[in-house]
Amino acid sequence: MLINELDHRVKNTLATVQAMARQTFSGSDQIALTSYMNRLKALSKAHEMLTRNAWEPTSLDEITGSAAHTFGPDRFTRSGPEIMVSSKVAVSLTMALHELATNAVKHGALSLPGGQVRISWRHRPPGDEVLELVWKESGGPAVTRPERTGLGMRLIEEQLAHEFGGRTCMAFEPGGLVCTLQLTLWSH
Ligand SMILES: Nc1ncnc2c1ncn2[C@@H]1O[C@H](COP(=O)(O)OP(=O)(O)OP(=O)(O)O)[C@@H](O)[C@H]1O
Ligand SMILES: [Mg+2]
Fold this sequence. Notes:
The protein is α+β, with helices and mostly antiparallel strands. Helix content is 49%, strand content 22%.
């Protein structure tokens, strides 16, 4: 009952934040407003997933599956062992995957009909406390290293680094972006 109540309140709060943004920024940059709204929606979906799992640990299969479902399941290949992550890690990963997928649609593999994204994950040896997730794009336009980065990359790098001692590596390979995320599990 408490979890449902919490879910209800989180949704109300997010709806209020959306309404405030719409009013505050009406008449200004609509593209920025849309990407902000989409970020809020991703956050809202992450919370829905946590509610479904009663804020218990969530599997990487479900987290990556949710992103694939939103952006086109036939464009994604996912593989990795059964790994459960805390609700806090689940929210951060969901937001990071949202930024990566949005970028793939805007600049990368998902901007062309045949483009694909492969997501794989594993524990890094020797212990099991570090998770490594690799996002690899192919079949998109030729990629070059950008001269400037925007909010998307900052969100991924800073949030993971601050919250989980995480490390992010973005490789702008000609055949497609390869992003490697590493974060420490269970220490928070
Ligand atoms: N998947 C990708 N393939 C090719 N280039 C990419 C990819 N993702 C990002 N980039 C390049 O990196 C730049 C920075 O990405 P970032 O997400 O930080 O900013 P943005 O998408 O331009 O804007 P914002 O995320 O703030 O809406 C992009 O402008 C683009 O040039
Ligand atoms: Mg972006």
